[in-house]
Amino acid sequence: MEEERLNRCEESKKIEQGTNLLIQFIPDTKTSHIPVVQLTNQLEANEKVPIVFVLPGVEGNLKPFEVLTSSMKTHVVDVQYNYQHPENNIQEIAQNTISHIECRLTRTVPFFFIGYSFGSAVALELVTLLENRGHLGTVILLDGSPTYSRCGVKKLFGSEEDANFQMAILNKIFSLVIPFDVLSEHQEALLNGKDFEERVDIARALMPPETINKQKLEKQAPVTLYTRLRASPDDLHIQE
To answer: Domain Thioesterase, which positions (predicted)?
Structure first.
């Protein structure tokens, strides 16, 4: 009995940790629709220092890194990807954000981009568009390049055949908040879902009722993640 109780406590702790991990990547609903957000720091708003545009990873916003960026001695602008209506490819993300970036630039001051992981592909696409419009600048890629990003997705999720790809993503996400044995028992039901959104509904119904912050783990989060992971960097205009 004691061992069973300890196992339940351990499972509950794991689910709570997984829930908290997922929630930190869900954007603030008050700002998630804004393409670019200037992050707070210790500088005056009109202080003449460079602007650094940061292209985040697949989570689409810099919320997990806000503590780090708040101490930077420069103006940091978070380039956000659309959460409620995620773009289908890298080009769409770049086209939807370039006007919001370009209005903060001048041709006499070089731009400065930092692309992290998935954001590296977005940064390269934006740089190409800006250079074609006469802008010059610097781009730094952290933990990512078009080839690296695609290989990373393949390594993490395996087959890109759509049903298998969807199942791999669902299992990765929901294994954080659903006991392994429960998730395993319902693999066939998940696979029989007519599309990704229905599979998400099935998986969410398996979440334990006592899950902390269950209401915050909304359906849109895995749908957006799936769409971004399918956004292929293979057809970028810039070549590595």
So the answer is: 51-149
Q: 228: buried, middle or exposed (CB in 10 Å: 19+, 13-18, 0-12)?
A: buried
Contact 126/101 with Cβ under 8 angstroms? yes
List of domains in the chain = 10-28+158-230 (no CATH), 36-150 (3.40.50.1820)
Provide the edge-to-edge strand list for the sheet that holds 36-38. 36-38, 75-79, 51-55, 111-116, 137-142
Q: For 213, phi and psi rounded to 5 degrees?
A: 60, 30
Distances in Å between the Cα of 174 and the Cα atoms of 71, 146, 166 are: 34, 27, 12
Report the DSSP pairing between strands 75-79 and 111-116.
unpaired
- The pLDDT confidence band at residue 97, using thresholds 50, 70 and 90, is very high
Q: Give 165-204 pLDDT, tens digit per residue.
A: 889 888 888 887 888 889 999 999 999 999 999 999 999 9
Residues 48-72 pLDDT 10s? 777 899 998 888 877 766 777 777 7
Other C-beta atoms within 10 Å of 224: how many?
A: 25
109/34 Cα distance (integer angstroms): 24
Taking the C-alpha atoms of residue 236 and residue 137, their distance in angstroms, rounded to an integer, is 19
Task: Record the tokens describing residue 10, joined without a space.
Answer: 């351990």
Nearest to 115 by CA among 141, 135, 90, 91: 141
The average pLDDT across 76-90 equals 89
Residue of 115, 118, 116 lying closest to 127 (CA atoms)? 115
Per-residue 3-state assignment (H helix, E strand, C coil) for 156-210: HHCCCCHHHHHHHHHHHHHCCCCCHHHHHHCHHHHHCCCCHHHHHHHHHHCCCCC
